[in-house]
Write a structure and sequence with these properties.
Structural class of chain A: alpha/beta
Shape of chain B: globular
Distance between the termini of chain B: 38 Å
Structural class of chain B: alpha/beta
CATH superfamily of the domain at 1-34 and 41-81 and 215-262 and 274-323 in chain B: P-loop containing nucleotide triphosphate hydrolases
Radius of gyration of chain A: 23 Å
CATH architecture of chain A: 3-Layer(aba) Sandwich
Low-confidence stretches of chain B: none
Number of strands of chain B: 12
Mean pLDDT of chain B: 91
CATH topology of the domain at 1-34 and 41-81 and 215-262 and 274-323 in chain B: Rossmann fold
CATH class of the domain at 1-34 and 41-81 and 215-262 and 274-323 in chain B: Alpha Beta
CATH architecture of the domain at 1-34 and 41-81 and 215-262 and 274-323 in chain B: 3-Layer(aba) Sandwich
Mean pLDDT of chain A: 89
Strand content of chain A: 15-25%
Largest interface: A-B, 46 and 48 residues
Radius of gyration of chain B: 21 Å
Number of domains of chain A: 1
Order of helices and strands of chain A: EHEEHEEEEEHHHEHEHEEHHHEEH
Oligomer: heterodimer
Order of helices and strands of chain B: EEEHEEHEHHHHEHEHEEHHEE
Strand order of the largest sheet of chain B: 6-7-8-3-9-10-12-11
CATH superfamily of chain A: P-loop containing nucleotide triphosphate hydrolases
Largest sheet of chain B: 8 strands, mixed
Helix content of chain A: 25-40%
Helix content of chain B: 25-40%
Distance between the termini of chain A: 36 Å
Largest sheet of chain A: 8 strands, mixed
C-alpha cells in the first residue's frame, strides 16, 4: 500500500540514568530512588519516499541527532521500528543492513587520525565484500574523484586536509558503501560559508546522479530549505509539523514552526531598515521534565486549556501536511462546520 | 566630546610560530563613532577575532601587536603599560566572547564575580555592588535577578549565561564593547532574543559595538557599517546595506553568493572555488587572487585602498557599481 522507502513507526528513545552504587543499595532496601529518564525522542512516525530528501530541523536538545542515529542503526530505539524497503535496520539490537550510511557533523572527529584516508574509505567496502582487497585501491580512487578530491590523496592522513576536504572524505566513505539512504547529521555546520556552498553543491550533484534518499538533519533553516523536498520540524522529542518544503516555508501552520522561521535573521539589504526580531519568549524546557500536554504550550502565543492537558496528535490538514496542534485542529473543525452549514 | 571614539591605524598583529610568522592582522585601519555598531565579518583565519582581541590588548605570545596604532578617545592603547590597560578594560572597553564560560568563573556565584568586576573599578560597598549587579542583570532580561545572584554559572542555560556575560560587559557602561561571535553558540530562537537586547542596550546607553561574526545575515540586522576581512586584511568597508546589496570586492560577492538564501531552492550555489589560504604561505599581492575569477597578472601587486562615494575597498578589478 505504501510506497515509502524509509518508515519510522512509533519510535521512542529514553536514556535512563545509570544508578550510582549508593542508589542501587538504597533501592535494594526498598527506598524509592529518583530516576529521571531523558525522553530524547517520543513516538515519532515518519516516512521518506525513494529518492527524496527529508530535512529534519530543530534546536539543540530536540532529539534530531538521536533520531538520526536511530535511523542509521547506531542506537537502538526504546520502542518502535525502522524499516528500509520493508527490511528492518536492526535485528536484536544489531545493525543488519549496510543500506544506510551516515555523514557526521565534525570531520575532525569522524576520521581516524592515524589511518590514511584511502584505508578509511576502503575499510567498510572490503569488510562487507563490496570490493576485493586487490581492487580496493582503484575503487577508492574512483570515489575520491567522485567527491572532488585528487585520487592521489588516498595516501594522505586527515591532518593534511582542510575542513571542507575532510567532509568530502567523510562523504566518500559513506558513498563507498553504496548505500540507498544517507543520514547527514549537520554535515555543513562546522564549515565556513564559502566551503559550505561547495559541499552543498556536491551534495545536490551526488543526489541527482546517484538517486540517493536522504535524511538531512540541520539547525540551519536556510540550508534545509535549499536541499530538502520535505521538511519535518522537531520540538522536545516530537515531530510538530511535516510538509513539503514550499508549504512549510511559505505558510507554516504550527506556532513553533512559525516562531522558528521568524527568528532566523534575514539578510537586510535596505538602508536604515529597522529590523524587528520576533523572538519566541522563554526557553526550551528540559527534556528531563517536559511540560504536560503540548510541550510547546508554555511558550505558545495561541495556547488554550487543551494544550496544557493533552498531547496533540500529528494530523493531516487536508493536504499532505501533518500538524500537531490543538488550536489548528479546532480551526479546521470550525471551518469544516461552517462549510457544512453553508452547504445545507 | 567629539563623535570619534576609536581610531585604528595600520594595525599589525603577528604570531611568531615555529613554522614561521603568521600575519593574522596585517595593516587594518578603521574608525568608529560613539554608539555605532560595526560588523566585522570574515571566514575562519581571516583575522577578525584577532583584530577584536588586539583592541583590548588581549593578544598572548607568540602573538604580538608589531605595528600600528589604536586610539580610544584619543588615548593610544598600543604599547600602554599593562596596569594602565587593566584600569581601562571593563570600564571603557569590554568584551563578550562566543563561549560565555570563557568569561565566567565556574566556581564563583554570578553575584560574586559581578561584584568583583564592579569593585575593581569603583569604591562601593558590597551591598551597593550587589544591588548594581542585580539591576544590570534585570536590564539584560534575567528574571528574578536578585535571587539569581547566588546561582553558579552551570545553573544557567546557554542563553542566560550569555546574558550574564553581556551584563558584566555592560556594568560600567563602557564606550565600546567588542562582541566576538556572541550568538554563534546559541539556538536561533535564543539568538533573536540576544540580538534584540544587545541592540537595545547599545542604543540606550550609547555604547558602540564591534560585532564580529561569520554570519552576514546577523550582521546585516544589527550593524550600520560592515568591514569584510580576508587573510588578515580589510577588503571592503562601508554602510552595511550598500556593501551587501552592491559589493565592489569579488570576495564580498563570493560570500553573498555562497548563501543559500540568495539562490533558488535546489539550484546550484555560485561557490567560491578553492580553500582559504594558509597565512604562512600567502601569495604575493592580493591574497584572494588565486580564488578570484576576475584576477589578472596585476593582482601579484598589492592593490591600493580605493574609495567610491560611500565605501572603501582593495581590489585591482572591482565589480561595477549597480546603478
Amino acid at each position: 500500500m505504501s510506497t515509502a522507502f524509509l518508515t519510522l513507526d512509533g519510535i521512542s528513545k529514553r536514556f535512563d540514568p545509570r544508578l550510582t552504587l549508593g542508589d542501587r543499595i538504597a533501592a535494594r532496601f526498598g527506598a524509592t530512588v529518583e530516576d529521571r529518564p531523558v525522553r530524547a525522542v517520543t513516538e515519532v512516525s515518519l516516512t521518506i519516499n525513494p529518492g527524496e530528501t527529508l530535512g529534519l530541523v530543530g534546536e539543540s536538545g530536540c532529539g534530531k541527532s538521536t533520531l538520526g542515529r536511530i535511523v542509521a542503526g547506531i542506537l537502538p530505539p526504546t520502542a518502535g521500528t525502522v524499516t528500509i524497503d520493508g527490511e528492518p535496520v536492526l535485528h536484536n539490537g544489531r545493525k543488519v543492513t549496510t543500506r544506510v550510511q551516515t555523514v557526521f557533523q565534525d570531520p575532525f572527529a569522524s576520521l581516524d587520525p592515524r589511518m590514511r584516508i584511502g584505508d578509511t574509505v576502503a575499510e567498510g567496502p572490503i569488510a562487507h565484500g563490496l570490493v576485493t582487497k586487490a581492487n580496493a585501491a582503484d575503487y577508492v580512487r574512483g570515489w575520491l574523484q567522485r567527491v572532488g578530491l585528487e585520487p592521489d590523496f588516498a595516501d594522505r592522513y586527515p591532518h593534511q586536509f582542510s575542513g571542507g576536504q575532510r567532509q568530502r572524505v567523510a562523504i566518500a566513505r559513506a558513498l563507498a558503501m553504496q548505500p540507498d539512504l544517507l543520514v547527514c547529521d549537520e554535515p555543513v555546520a562546522s564549515l565556513d560559508v564559502s566551503i559550505q556552498a561547495q559541499i552543498i553543491n556536491l551534495f545536490l550533484e551526488l543526489r541527482r546522479d546517484l538517486g540517493i534518499t536522504c535524511l538531512f538533519i540541520s539547525h540551519d533553516l536556510g540550508v534545509v530549505r535549499h536541499v530538502s523536498d520535505r521538511v519535518a520540524i522537531m520540538y522536545l522529542g516530537r515531530i510538530v509539523e511535516v510538509g513539503s518544503t514550499e508549504q512549510i516555508y511559505r505558510d507554516p501552520k504550527h506556532p513553533y514552526t512559525r516562531a522558528l522561521l521568524d527568528s532566523v535573521p534575514r539578510l537586510v539589504l535596505e538602508d536604515d531598515a529597522l529590523v524587528e526580531f520576533n523572538a519566541i519568549t522563554g526557553e526550551i524546557p528540559s527534556p528531563l521534565a517536559p511540560p504536560p500536554g503540548c510541550t510547546f504550550h508554555p511558550r505558545c502565543p495561541l495556547a488554550v486549556d487543551a494544550c496544557r492537558r493533552d498531547v496533540p496528535a500529528l494530523m493531516a490538514d487536508g493536504t499532505d501536511r501533518l500538524v500537531a496542534c490543538h488550536v489548528r485542529a479546532m480551526e479546521r473543525n470550525a471551518a469544516a462546520t461552517t462549510a457544512l452549514e453553508e452547504g445545507r | 566630546m567629539s563623535a570619534l571614539l576609536l581610531e585604528v591605524r595600520d594595525l599589525r598583529t603577528h604570531f611568531f610560530t615555529r613554522a614561521g610568522v603568521v600575519k593574522a592582522v596585517d595593516g587594518v585601519s578603521f574608525t568608529m563613532e560613539r554608539g555605532q555598531v560595526l560588523g566585522l565579518v570574515g571566514e575562519s583565519g581571516s583575522g577578525k577575532s584577532v583584530t577584536g582581541f588586539s583592541l583590548l590588548g588581549l593578544v598572548d605570545p607568540p602573538g604580538r601587536i608589531v605595528g600600528g596604532s589604536i586610539r580610544l578617545d584619543g588615548e593610544e592603547l598600543v604599547g600602554m603599560p599593562l596596569d594602565e590597560l587593566r584600569r581601562l578594560r571593563g570600564r571603557r572597553i569590554a568584551m563578550v566572547f562566543q563561549d560565555p564560560m570563557m568569561t565566567l568563573n565556574p566556581v564563583l556565584t554570578v553575584g560574586a564575580q559581578m561584584t568583583l568586576a564592579i569593585r575593581a573599578h569603583e569604591k562601593v560597598t558590597g551591598v551597593a555592588a550587589r544591588e548594581r549587579a542585580a539591576s544590570v542583570l534585570t536590564r539584560v532580561g534575567i528574571p528574578d535577578a536578585a535571587a539569581r545572584l547566588d546561582a553558579y554559572p552551570h545553573e544557567f542555560s546557554g542563553g542566560m549565561r550569555q546574558r550574564v556575560a553581556i551584563a558584566i560587559a555592560m556594568t560600567h557602561s563602557p564606550g565600546l564593547i567588542v562582541a566576538d561571535e556572541p550568538t554563534t553558540a546559541l539556538d536561533v530562537s535564543i539568538q533573536a532574543q540576544i540580538l534584540h537586547e544587545m541592540r537595545e542596550l547599545s542604543r540606550e546607553s550609547g555604547t558602540a559595538l564591534v560585532w564580529i561574526s561569520h554570519d552576514l545575515a546577523t550582521v546585516s540586522s544589527v550593524a550600520e557599517r560592515i568591514m569584510v576581512m580576508y587573510a588578515g586584511r580589510l577588503v571592503e568597508e562601508g554602510p552595511t546595506a550598500t556593501v551587501l546589496r552592491d559589493p565592489r570586492h569579488p570576495y564580498t560577492r563570493g560570500l553573498l553568493d555562497s548563501l543559500p538564501a540568495t539562490a533558488r531552492p535546489g539550484q546550484e550555489l555560485r561557490q567560491v572555488p578553492g580553500n582559504t589560504p594558509s597565512l604562512l604561505a600567502l601569495p604575493p599581492g592580493c591574497p584572494f587572487a588565486p580564488r578570484c575569477v576576475r584576477a589578472s597578472e596585476r593582482c601579484v601587486e598589492d592593490p591600493e585602498h580605493r574609495v567610491d562615494a560611500v565605501r572603501a575597498f582593495r581590489c585591482h578589478h572591482p565589480l561595477e557599481r549597480a546603478a
